[in-house]
Design brief:
binds flavin-adenine dinucleotide, 8 strands, 12 helices, eight-stranded parallel barrel, about 50% helix, alpha/beta
Length: about 325
Amino acid sequence: MKRTEQPASSPAMQTMTSRAATTLNSAFRGGILISTNNAVVTRLVHRHGVRLGASRFVAGETLDECLPVFKRLNAQGLRINTSILGEDVQDEATATAVTDAYVDVLDRLVTEGVDGNVAVKLTHLGLNLGEAVAYQNVARLAVHARDRSTFLRIDMEESARVDATLRIYSQLRGAGHDNVGTVLQSSLYRTDDDLTELFPLRPNLRLVKGAYLEHDTVAYPKKADVDANYQRLAERMLRGGGFTAIATHDERLIAHVIAIARRDGVPRDRFEFQMLYGIRPQLQLDLVAQGYRVLVATPYGSDWYPYLMRCLAERPTNLLFFARNILRR
Ligand SMILES: Cc1cc2nc3c(=O)[nH]c(=O)nc-3n(C[C@H](O)[C@H](O)[C@H](O)COP(=O)(O)OP(=O)(O)OC[C@H]3O[C@@H](n4cnc5c(N)ncnc54)[C@H](O)[C@@H]3O)c2cc1C
C-alpha cells in the first residue's frame, strides 16, 4: 500500500502506533539476537540456512562462488567490500590462518580486477588473545593492502570491544598505515567523544547505527535517539577533514546527508553510501544513477550464522521470508 493510500489517523494515534511498533521491533530484535545462542535455533538454521534463505544476505560460502557476484555488482557501478564471515577466534593458529586467508582475498581481488576492499573483525584476527595478537595480524593486512593500493576497514563489534578497536586503529595510523579505516556506532553514548578524539587523524570512518544488543547504560534504548544521534554524527563527520562512509539503508538519513553535502559543498569524493548485500538493492542503484559513490558490503564464508541472525533481527519481514522458505520444503 502506498503511503498516501493509508487511512488518516490523529497525530496522537500515530505517535502511539509508532511507539508500539518501536517497542515490538526492539522486543523482536532482542528475541532474535538472544536466540542466536539457542542450540535448537542454531541447529535448524545451520541445517537449512544457505539453501533456504541465507543466500539473500550472504553472497556464497567460498570466494570462488562470490567473485561473479562482486563482478556483477561492479558492472552495476557499485564498489564492494568483502569479509570472511567469522568472529571470536580463541586460538592463535586460527587467527593466523584467518589472516593468511585475508592475504589471499586481497590478492584475488586484485588479480580478478574487482573494484573493492576488505573489512575485518578484530576478534576474527585474535583480539580475544590480546591486543598485540590482533595488532600484529591487522598490521600485516594493512601492509599487504597498501602494497596492492587498496584499503582495509576494521569493523566495530560490541561495545566492550570499542576501546581496544579504537586503540588499535590509532596505533595503526600512528605507524603510518593511512589506508585503514574503522567504524563508529550511533547507538553508543560515547561515540560523540570518540569522534572528537579521532578527528586529528583525519579518519576514514564508516558510521553505522550498531548491530549489537547493548545495555541501556552504554547505548540509547530508543531507536529515535539512535537515529537522531546518527544525523548529528554524520553532520560532524561530513564537516570534518576525513572520509565518511554513510552506512545505512535509512532513506530519511540518506536524504539528509545528501542535503547537508549539497548545502556545505562537501565534494562527492569525500563521502560514500554503504549498504549490505541483499538489502535495498534498488536504492543502491538509484544513488549510483545520481552520481554518488556506493559500496555494497558483501561478506562470504561458511561461518555465516551470527551474521545472518543479525540481518534477520533487523526486520520482522526478513524472518518471515526465511521461515516461509523453510516451511515450503
Ligand atoms: C555497510 C555496512 C556495514 C556495517 N558495519 C557494521 C559494523 O561494523 N558494526 C555494527 O555494529 N554494525 C554494522 N552495520 C549494521 C548497522 O549497525 C545496522 O544494524 C544496519 O545497517 C541496519 O540499520 P540501518 O542503518 O539500515 O537502519 P534501520 O533503521 O534499521 O533501517 C532503515 C530501513 O532500512 C531497511 N533495512 C535495514 N536493515 C534491513 C534488513 N536487515 N533487511 C531488510 N531491510 C532492512 C528497512 O527498510 C528499514 O526501514 C553495518 C551496516 C552496513 C550497511
